[in-house]
Specification:
Layout: E1 10-13, E2 16-19, E3 23-32, E4 37-45, E5 51-60, H1 65-82, E6 88-91
Parallel strand pairs: 3-6
Antiparallel strand pairs: 1-2, 3-4, 4-5
Length: about 100
């Protein structure tokens, strides 16, 4: 094994293991039936589990749960792109949307 190549470092917080040097976007989607709205909460975490910043979005209209979750992931990835983040892990409540 080459001495100059280090093994990757992992840090685990939440349910997803994050590589050192990466950030994690945690995406939660909420549906408000009484007001016909959907909310998306995106939290940005550092590799050591430190909170960096968050964002909340509200969408008007009724969408299917799977569509809402896909919209949440899209918004998270768009935000990461706008922040010029390159090493990103995305975590959500559902495996089907990923």
């Amino acid at each position: 094994m080459c001495s100059h190549i280090r093994e990757p470092q992992f840090v685990k917080h939440g349910t997803v293991q994050v590589w050192a040097g990466f950030v994690k976007l945690n995406v939660d989607v909420y549906f408000f039936a009484d007001s016909n709205q959907m909310g998306v909460r995106i939290l940005l975490w550092g590799a050591l589990g430190n909170f960096i910043m968050g964002r909340t979005l509200i969408f008007h209209g009724c969408v299917d749960v799977k569509v809402g979750e896909a919209m949440g992931f899209f918004e998270a990835l768009s935000w990461a792109n706008n922040l010029n983040l390159e090493k990103v892990v995305v975590e959500g409540d559902t495996e089907k949307s990923l």
